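Sequence, please.
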């Protein structure tokens, strides 16, 4: 079972017409709804399950600028600016606090990589800097392992994933957005080639624009429209500890662990250095596009063939809009966590911080991270279907940059000047000869 997420009851009435329909109720979808509603745009957000019940509530809760891909940095900076005022904006607690984040370097080679990233980030005048072992020990009380140094950003922060998405959705509703849960969108209707509405499992909603913020489900949704979105998913396993009063306040990551202190006094802990990749039919269809990323992260990836291969092989790739869609068969994507990854993360953090050795594990869960071949998202209009926009493939960065992404896609939908240049996030980068690849210094 996934973590316990604040509930957001569904609106009962389905509108017959709105300006924009948003497909997906995670951090991206709710943030988009909020920024559109703030502009007076009529919005219906449709979620097949519950608000923020998939990866948007299952992530670490980090909100960082540090170690981002240079193409993503302006969006990360804008997102942190929004996060800093988020509680006031939504008139609720999202758990955001400016706590600082630290990447620990075990070797001089790790430290050199951080220094190379700083060279790319200096143009943005971030407060990120390299610190030595003495400052590490001062800022992370109880640390017992010696590190070569660390990359530290004092102005990075954290929020509570189980609280933030629901709080943002409720704020969007107060501003006039309709929030519909248990309401899968089966597909888009077009006339003369452009969007005129969506068909949900309950009824049709007329609209002029659609934003797909479907996370791990986005490729399947696009495929039924004849749109190629080269997206895959990887499994991320997480544990939550019981309360630990003597633990560090600053979030940090080492080679095999990453953690965040929670508002309840416990810690969210996961692996910073490992990802489990289930081989599925799309893994082979998209093999060439993901080969550069696989080469960069080879040591971090563990591959397996299991139930997901069969499940995805059996999942229809095309369906009619007058019949149930795959989105109605799986309301919440709730994969089992990889126990071996969790145990290695637990052993690794206990080696660095002895206080974690005997702390009880309160809960474990897993989520599916939607990834792109170059590890940066698609935030883009779809040229072949005017009125259709995509915001997906955040590659594990979606929670932290979600508010900025929501603002950006909202501005694109209404034709306003975008807060950051959206060109790096265009869908067409995969077909226009750009040959996009992951940045080797980003994480």
């Amino acid at each position: 079972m996934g973590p316990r997420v604040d509930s957001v009851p569904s609106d009962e009435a389905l509108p017959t017409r709105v300006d924009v329909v948003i497909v997906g109720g995670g951090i991206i979808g709710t943030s988009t709804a909020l920024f559109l509603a703030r502009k007076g745009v009529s919005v219906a957000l449709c979620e097949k399950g519950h608000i923020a019940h998939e990866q948007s509530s299952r992530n670490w809760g980090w909100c960082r600028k540090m170690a981002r891909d240079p193409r993503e940095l302006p969006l990360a900076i804008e997102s942190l600016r929004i996060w800093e005022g988020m509680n006031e904006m939504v008139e609720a607690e999202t758990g955001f606090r400016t706590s600082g984040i630290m990447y620990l370097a075990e070797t001089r080679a790790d430290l050199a990589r951080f220094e190379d990233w700083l060279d790319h980030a200096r143009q943005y005048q971030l407060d990120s800097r390299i610190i030595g072992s003495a400052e590490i020990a001062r800022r992370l009380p109880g640390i017992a392992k010696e590190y070569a140094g660390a990359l530290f950003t004092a102005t990075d922060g954290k929020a509570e994933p189980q609280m933030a998405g629901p709080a943002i959705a409720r704020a969007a509703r107060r501003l006039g957005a309709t929030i519909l849960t248990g309401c899968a969108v089966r597909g888009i209707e077009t006339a003369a080639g452009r969007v005129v509405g969506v068909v949900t499992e309950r009824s049709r909603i007329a609209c002029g624009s659609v934003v797909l913020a479907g996370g791990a489900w986005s490729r399947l949704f696009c495929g039924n429209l004849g749109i190629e979105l080269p997206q895959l998913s990887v499994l991320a396993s997480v544990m939550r500890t019981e309360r630990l009063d003597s633990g560090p306040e600053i979030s940090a990551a080492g080679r095999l662990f990453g953690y965040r202190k929670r508002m309840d006094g416990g810690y969210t802990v996961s692996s910073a250095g490992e990802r489990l990749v289930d081989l599925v039919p799309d893994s082979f269809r998209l093999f060439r596009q993901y080969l550069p990323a696989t080469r960069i992260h080879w040591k971090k990836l563990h591959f397996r063939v299991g139930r997901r291969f069969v499940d995805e092989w059996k999942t229809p790739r095309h369906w009619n809009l007058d019949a149930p869609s795959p989105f109605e068969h799986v309301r919440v994507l709730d994969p089992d966590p990889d126990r071996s990854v969790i145990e290695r993360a637990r052993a690794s953090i206990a080696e660095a911080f002895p206080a974690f050795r005997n702390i009880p594990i309160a809960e474990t869960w897993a989520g599916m991270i939607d990834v792109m071949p170059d590890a940066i998202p698609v935030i883009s209009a779809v040229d072949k279907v005017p009125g259709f926009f995509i915001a997906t493939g955040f590659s594990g960065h979606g929670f932290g940059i979600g508010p900025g992404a929501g603002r950006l896609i909202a501005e694109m939908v209404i034709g306003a000047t975008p807060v950051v240049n959206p060109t790096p996030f265009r869908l067409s980068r995969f077909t226009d000869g750009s040959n996009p690849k992951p940045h080797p210094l980003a994480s």
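The chain is about 30% helix and 25% strand.
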